[in-house]
Amino acid sequence: MTQPIISFDQVSFQYDSQAEPSLIDISFQIQQGEIVLILGPSGSGKSTMAKCINGQIPHAFPGDLQGNIQVNGVDPRSTSLFELSLVVGTVLQDTDGQFVGLTVAEDLAFALENDRVDQAKMKDIVQGWSQALDMKIYWKKILIIYLVDRNNVFQSVVF
């Protein structure tokens, strides 16, 4: 069996600012290619789990993190947020807050800018992804058109 792309082994986390833990003894594995839905009521730990995967916990949100986490073969605790951003994309609950450009192309390029990709190479990559995702016709359109279909927000984290 291949190594899981995401693995939690008896993971618990309590924010410094909270009296009770948000995660208690969570264990699971996700294999490459699997589609997984994490579902639960408000306050059940879904966002906390996502922050553990993308490295915001422990780098940006202090607290007591116990157990073992592996993301693409590395422990997020010993990997920089920048390095994790190369393999983990996050779609926020309020997708409007994730749009940063005025056009679809600018929004697609945003992740590449964070990764310090050369501008000439960035243009080729954005054009390629626009074509691959059948978005070429929207490439120069104002972003307000893009907001109509919130499902497309996932395409900005494909990089």
Task: Write up what this structure looks like.
- By secondary structure, the chain is of the alpha+beta class.
- It folds into two domains: 6-86, no CATH class; 104-156, no CATH class.
- The chain is 30% helix and 17% strand.
- The chain is built from six helices and three strands, in the order ββααβαααα.
- It has helices at residues 46-54, 56-59, 81-85, 104-114, 119-132, 143-146; strands at 6-15, 23-30, 63-71.
- A three-stranded antiparallel β-sheet has the order 2-1-3, covered by helices on one side.
- The longest helix is centred in the last third of the chain and has 14 residues, at 119-132.
- The radius of gyration is 17 Å and the shape is globular.
- The two termini are 27 Å apart.
- The model is unreliable at 142-149 and 154-159 (pLDDT under 50).
Measured as a percent range, the helix fraction is 25-40%
Q: What's the number of extended β-strand segments?
A: 3
Largest sheet: 3 strands, antiparallel
> Globular, elongated, flat, extended or rod-shaped: what is the shape?
globular
Number of domains: 2
Mean pLDDT: 81
The value of Rg in angstroms is 17 Å
Order of strands, main sheet, comes to 2-1-3
Series of H and E elements: EEHHEHHHH
Compute the number of helices.
6
The separation of the N and C termini measures 27 Å
Structural class: alpha+beta
GO molecular function: ATP binding; ATP hydrolysis activity; ATPase-coupled transmembrane transporter activity
InterPro entries: ABC_transporter-like_ATP-bd, ABC_transpr_CbiO/EcfA_su, ECF_ABC_transporter_ATP-bd, P-loop_NTPase
Organism: Alloiococcus otitis ATCC 51267
Family: Belongs to the ABC transporter superfamily.
